[in-house]
Specification:
heterodimer, A: Purple Acid Phosphatase, chain A, domain 2, 6-stranded mixed β-sheet, 7 helices, globular, disordered N terminus, B: 103 residues, mainly beta, Immunoglobulin-like
């Protein structure tokens, strides 16, 4: 695909095929987004980008810089920009300084005022306190987990890739779980909550470690809130679950797809015909409607 | 240089794991270490090579050694000076587990 044709194809991002989820009376409902335009469904609140894997150069996508650039061009071309962006990890492929430099340079083109980043396991192969934290550790005092408020929504960034369970599931660890309890305690149940972390915070497929060991404990802390959105990456495909008022959602990668759970010997890069690749890469956009509900739309590069 | 070292390791080890070899090879393929259990003599150097398109690491569970992320065809070496049981995992895919017994 040439750069020109990729850009043309990307123009439909945000207004193309997707599924919009809205919370109505505590029940999420989905309807076809094909005819909806982003300005008609609400003010863009934030953008979720994930698994950019800068440094990856194998057959599944020899040009991860190109697909990230295409993604950023499409976002910047939206009629209304989101206020900020979340990156749910695996910024880089091998935690190398040069990969982080390239990624930072590319992501700085996003026309958003803030970028909030949680690490993926590919970002911290050099251990705690290294390259990732030198760049993105400031808001959290180098812990990686922190919270902030924006537009009436409470955002919680969690790190579940540095303290694995013996069965391979991600984990927060005791200190972070205690911090999370404290962060949520006393908070009004009517405040919308958005939680984001790299690995899924619920178990999607344990044999591949697609889950978080303390998932049930985390969900139990969130159940009393009226609107909770849990955003993850890691598995390079959309999987979602609704449990009461909690929507769990994983985003696509901008780099390469992965097989569905159990669909290959391991969760490695999935090689697809080049024409199919743009349809398997993309981002998630969140919009806030007048009643402060958070709705998600997924868009591909196709 | 890395690939030359790897061939050197293969020549010395003869593909199996003789206790007296100076270097022993462990291959990483399809999200597994091969061999997953290794018995070596103190002073032996183990050379891991990743053949997968996905990166892997070699991370001691008690923190005694840790490789950087190995891309496809990258190698990592570590010399086991002291007897003991050394369990390690891939820090990117912690379901991948193996153990080295040093006598």
């Amino acid at each position: 695909m040439t750069d020109t044709s990729r850009r043309d194809a990307l123009k439909c991002l945000g207004v193309g095929a997707g599924t919009l989820f809205t919370l109505s009376g505590g029940v999420f409902s989905a309807f076809d987004m094909a005819e909806a335009r982003i300005e008609e469904v609400g003010t863009p609140l934030f953008l979720q980008i994930s698994d950019t894997h800068i440094g990856f150069n194998k057959d599944a996508n020899p040009d991860v810089i190109g697909t990230l650039n295409g993604t950023i061009d499409a976002i910047n071309a939206l009629p209304q920009q989101p206020a900020f962006a979340l990156h749910t990890g695996d910024v880089t492929h091998l935690s190398k300084a040069g990969e982080f430099d390239t990624a930072s340079q590319l992501l700085s083109r996003l026309r958003v005022s803030e970028l909030h980043v949680v690490p993926g396991e590919h970002d911290v192969t050099d251990g705690p306190g290294a390259e990732f934290f030198a760049r993105f550790g400031k808001p959290s005092g180098n812990r990686g987990y922190y919270s902030f408020d924006a537009k009436g929504v409470h955002f919680i960034a969690l790190v579940n890739v540095m303290n694995f369970k013996p069965n391979g599931l991600g984990a927060l660890g005791e200190d972070q779980l205690n911090w999370l309890k404290g962060d949520l305690s006393g908070r009004s149940a009517s405040q919308p909550i958005v939680v984001f972390a790299h690995m899924p915070l619920w178990t999607i497929y344990e044999p591949w470690g697609w889950g978080t060991g303390e998932g049930e404990e985390i969900a139990s802390l969130l159940r009393r809130f009226g609107s909770v959105t849990v955003l993850n990456g890691h598995i390079h495909q959309i999987v979602q679950k609704v449990e009461g008022n909690i929507l769990f959602h994983t985003a696509r990668s901008t780099a390469y797809p992965q097989p569905p759970a159990g669909g290959a010997p391991g969760p490695g890069p999935l090689v697809v015909p080049p024409a199919q690749l743009p349809g398997m890469l993309g981002v998630t956009m969140a919009v806030a409607d007048k009643t402060r509900r958070v709705a998600l739309t997924d868009s591909t590069l196709a | 240089m890395k690939s030359r070292l790897f061939i050197f390791a293969l020549l010395l080890s003869g593909g199996t794991a003789p206790a007296s070899a100076a270097e022993v090879a462990v291959v990483i393929q399809n999200f597994d270490y091969s061999p997953m259990e290794l018995n070596i003599a103190a002073g032996t150097t183990v050379v891991w090579k990743n053949l997968d398109g996905e990166p892997h690491t070699i991370a001691s569970v008690d923190g005694r050694f840790r490789s950087p992320a190995l891309d496809q065809n990258d190698s990592f070496r570590f010399t086991f000076a002291s007897p003991g049981i050394y369990k390690y995992i891939c820090s990117i895919h912690p379901k991948m587990k193996a153990v080295i017994t040093v006598k």
